[in-house]
Amino acid sequence: MFEECIAPLVDGLFQGYNATVLAYGQTGSGKTYTMGTGFKDGCQMGIIPEVMNVLFSKIETLKHQTEFQLNVSFIEILKEEVQDLLDPATLNKSDTANGHGGKVNLPGKPSIQIRETSNGVITLAGSTEVSVSTFKEMATCLEQGSLSRATGSTNMNNQSSRSHAIFTITLEQMRKLNPVFPGDSNLNDSMNEEYLCAKLHLVDLAGSERAKRTGSDGMRFKEGVHINKGLLALGNVISALGDEKKRKEGVHVPYRDSKLTRLLQDSLGGNSRTVMIACISPADINAEETLNTLKYANRARNIQNKPIVNRDPMSSEMLKMRQQLEYLQAELFARGGCSSNEVQVLKERIAWLEAANEDLCRELHDYRSRDTAVEQRETDAQDGSICSVKTDGLKRSLHSIESPDYQMGETISAGDSRDIDEEVAKEWEHTLLQNTMDRELHELNRRLEEKESEMKLFGGVDTAALKQHFGKKIMELEDEKRTVQQERDRLLAEIENLSAGSEGQKLQDTHAQKLKTLEAQILDLKKKEENQVQLLKQKQKSDEATKRLQDEIQSIKAQKVQLQHRIKQEAEQFRQWKASQEKELLQLRKEGRRNEYERHKLQAINQRQKMVLQRKTEEAAMATKRLKELLEARKSPARDNSAIFNGNGANGQSNEKSLQRWLHHELEVMVNVHEVRFEYEKQSQVRVALAEELAVLKQVDEFASKGLSPPRGKNGFARASSMSPNARTARASSLENMLSITSNSLVAMASQLSEAEERERVFTNRGRWNQLRSMGDAKNLLQYMFNSLGDARCQLWEKEMELKEIKEQFKELVSLLRQSEAQRKEFEKELKLREHALAVALATAASVRLCHFVKLFFSCVI
Ligand SMILES: Nc1ncnc2c1ncn2[C@@H]1O[C@H](COP(=O)(O)OP(=O)(O)OP(=O)(O)O)[C@@H](O)[C@H]1O
């Protein structure tokens, strides 16, 4: 953990970054153990001793180039009071005071105050800061402070920390920097130094605790209340900082609610790199606390700090000046002595700037023309002119939308397919537009980056400083020129005054020589001055070019913002359109599903009807066939009769049998005719119903084709008009099919019936009994008929009895069914009552638990 989380913070200290390590968790979970705040007898366990090790070994390696100064302070917050653990006065008393809250501020010693400096840094006024230079010294401080810290025994920890402890290491460093002017290190020492100061807070918080579990009472209980209060305030701060929503809303962060949060203000959301260690217990009895700690830590993860390098203001200023100086040095060095080169460089720069400017103008023009084209496309799309380009992708997507299944094909018919066309075209158009705009944005970004990097070439140049520098230089040159000119004038005057003697001649020569040199100097100075003026002018030009470049960048940025805004708008419009489309599609799908269901239902009805009809028709056909056969058999009565009555007249018994067969046959014909007539009537009724339904369907279709709504309230119209056109067609064709089947069957039956009637007419009156030739035959037949009638009656009676029995059984079944239905209702009622009772019981239990929790919460707060 140290390598992963803490070592980088220690490294950061050397770069001037503040850091904080916080250990948080329930009592007895190992915070003190982890932090090493219980450092005793040189036993090096925990983070603080480890930090000390790394710190001193690093100082050892860097000490030849940096001066270090280390200070430590160690304080604790006990019952909302800040106590100094390194105060020599309290140190002596610690033996007696420790562990039992016997800590009191010594009389005369002002208590430690938390202050905030003008630049928002939190300081502790009155706390002892011990300067240390070795590991041992620092370890002594830690050990002494740890000994002075308030600890006490609870049920959950033998040596429970009763306060929040903060061990602070302040690292000050004075770094030697490389001199700006090589070989000029004696110029100003302070300019070649950098001062950094960083603080590392190592915080061992007191553990959150529940009085019931820690078994604390009296003073220990009061301590616990204070501890929880401080932790609650810390929780509120973490919550305000860690909740993104709250952060965005700018919710007030209650740092001032407790001393702990006030002291850690910088560490939580401020200028510090902070690590929070969540100490948890693996015991299941602590599961709730463990979960709370993890939630706490999870929230703390979202806090965003803003660490900065803590350089002292003088040092920062110095750094800035150094950078400026270095730049000027470089400029001077680049321009020194070779003015024509310099002019050349400037000229090149101007030419390049002008070319860049032209490029920018051209791009701007391109962009504007593209922008107009996009706008044109937009207006076209609004006018409803759908893009005529139909790519493969478009066709594919059209196909995929059209294909799904029957009901979609049914619902998305002619008119709807146009909608799909429009939808796909719109989607396609949106993608096209979005792509174009994205490309444009990308292009703009690229150019902006290009321009900005070009600007950087100029950006680094402090033009005002350069101008000032050149102005100063020109003034200096002018001064120098003036001095030289004055010298020359003086020499000229001297030459004139000198007599023409040899001495004078000699002096004159020397003066003339001097004069020449001076003239040459003046010329040289003039040249330099001109060069400087030229440079200044070039500089101005380059400034103008820079300004133009800046303007261009601004304009590109404005365009970029506009484009981004349009992309956003377009995306939003498309999203809304898409949502409405999806809603419509959903509606259509729903309708489609309904239609599909209807279609299946109709199919099933058609199928069933058809089957029933077929069965009936088959039965009718059978009856008709039988009738036909019977009638065929009766067509040759003479032959039969002769066979019956003449051929075997001698045999009386066989004659009797023949007569009986004849009677049977006659009866069978009669029954059969009855059956066929019955079937005929039934089928006629079915046919009428089918024909009526078909007529209604056709009328509804007619109305629909005319765009009218069919008359309301008319029989069958409502059902037919609720059907989809396709379903109507399917039903109509099925009806026609069934009609043709019934027609055929009816025709066959009608022909047989008419034949039977014809025959019947022949046998009316006594024609039927012409078969009987003698009284004996008649008596025999009558006897046979009487017997048959008697048998039939007896059978009828038996059947009636059976029917009666079945009816009785049916009645019993119905009453049983009613009883079981009543019982079911009773059960349901009872079940509902029980459910209600259970819900009430649960709610009561929950409210009791809530009350208990609230009570507990208030007791903690109090
Ligand atoms: N990782 C560990 N390995 C071994 N012992 C541990 C470990 N963590 C904690 N302990 C032991 O558990 C006991 C309680 O630990 P510690 O005092 O650090 O808890 P704490 O969280 O600081 O409690 P409190 O909040 O009450 O001060 C100590 O005896 C400590 O030595």
From TrEMBL:
Keyword field contains Nucleotide-binding: yes
Single GO MF descriptor: ATP binding
First-listed, main subcellular location of the protein, grouped into a coarse class: cytoplasm
Every Kinesin motor domain range: 1-303
Pfam families in the record: KIF21A_4th, Kinesin
One GO location term (cellular component): microtubule associated complex
GO terms under biological process: microtubule-based movement; mitotic spindle organization; spindle elongation
Keywords: ATP-binding, Coiled coil, Cytoplasm, Microtubule, Motor protein, Nucleotide-binding
Cited Gene3D superfamilies: Kinesin motor domain (3.40.850.10)
Subcellular location: Cytoplasm
Coiled-coil parts of chain: 434-573, 789-837
Binding site for ATP: G25, Q26, T27, G28, S29, G30, K31, T32
Superkingdom of origin: Eukaryota
Family annotation (InterPro entries): Kinesin-like_fam (IPR027640), Kinesin_motor_CS (IPR019821), Kinesin_motor_dom (IPR001752), Kinesin_motor_dom_sf (IPR036961), P-loop_NTPase (IPR027417)
Family label: Belongs to the TRAFAC class myosin-kinesin ATPase superfamily. Kinesin family.
Protein name per UniProt: Kinesin-like protein
